Amino acid sequence: MFAVDCATLKWYNRSMAKQIKLEQSKYRTVVIIARFMSAAALVLLGLSWPRMLAGKSAWVERVYSEGVYPLIRRVISAVTSLVPFSIAEFLLYAIVLSTAMLLITRLIQLFLTQNGFARLMRSVASILLAGGIVLNLFYITWGFNYFREPLAQRMELSVTSRSVDELDAFVRKTAFEARALRATLPENEQGVFEPKESTSRLFQKLPEAYAVLHSEISVIPSDPTRTKQILWSEGLSWQGISGIYIGLTAEPNVNSDQPPLLLYQAAAHEMAHQTGIASENEAEFAGYLACMRSSDPTIRYSGLAYALVVAGNALFDADSTRYLAVTETYGDAIWRDFSAYNKYWKAFSGEIRESADRRNDAYLKHNSQTSGIKSYGEAVDLLLAYEAKYGAS
């Protein structure tokens, strides 16, 4: 046997250690690149859905909106509706905090450890990959509904240009009904509409209203789950948001900090989203129809007040003189409610809200809502089309 030189053995061990580290470094680099490429592919796919599904509304309606989607949302909501609070809200807080903590940790390690940069890049790649997955899940669990057939088509409504006379008549009719109903409702010391029942109690009555609506208009599903109140609702107010639907958890969420005037219509709006009505003008319209089927006068008044606002705004744009003449029929009580409502939202005006409006506008336009945030006001076209078809009855 030959004796092995110790110096030679140490050199060999160091050489092997360097080789192993080099191989490990190459492997980590390959993993990081693969994650970035996967994330890029998923994000590109997620952003491409609107273009890929353009012009395929009949297919989306038949296969997804009337086929796959109802099963998806019922399975998810069967779990998430078991708890009274918004699961999506707490998931958002958890994701934001955990992501921030992870990135802060990786930035610290960047300066203190040898492989800090690789760890930072691996974490960034993982975050982007998770974002790509969530983006596509958004469309799979709900977002494809943006590209379905229009609600007016499914309800056989004729949405055309309407005369100022028709708009004027609708505002007057709505004002008459709202004023008569408002006289029966409770108010606070300032003379502003304020329900005696709790918000949660009133929200529980909205699913019943949708069941009644479905019995009359079958294309609107009958079984949305009740709306949940966002714990930090004031945060939504700063962004000018009255409610938000999260398809990933199948939860209609509402900003319960806002005045009660349009609160219940906002809740019905988010429930309309859960049924698969994605477009904002259609959800506004469906929410109004549901409110008007409610057995509770508080909810009906919220629907009427909404219609009075959106149709009144349209009348003002068309003929301000006629609008001013119509508003004389509103009555002092309704004006007190409108004044309190406007005062609340004015307190949250500013750059935060303007920034949120720009993001929402871009989001809606990306998803084939060409009017962006202006589409909320376009519900008046559906209101008038519905009035033309069913108003006499």
Describe this structure in words.
The chain is 68% helix and 3% strand. Strands 1-3-2 form a three-stranded mixed beta sheet. Helix 3 (87-112) packs antiparallel against helix 4. It has 393 residues and is mainly alpha-helical. The chain is built from 16 helices and three strands. The protein folds into two domains: 6-147, no CATH class; 159-390, no CATH class.
The H-and-E topology, N to C, reads as HHHHHHHHEHEEHHHHHHH
Number of helices: 16
**Strand order in the largest sheet:** 1-3-2
In percent, how much strand structure appears in the residues?
Answer: under 5%
| SS elements, strand count | 3
Cα-based radius of gyration, to the nearest Å? 27 Å
Low-confidence spans: none
Q: How many distinct domains?
A: 2
- What would you call the structural class? mainly alpha
- What portion of residues is helical? 55-70%
Rounded mean pLDDT is 92
Largest sheet: 3 strands, mixed
Rough outline: globular
Distance between the termini: 109 Å
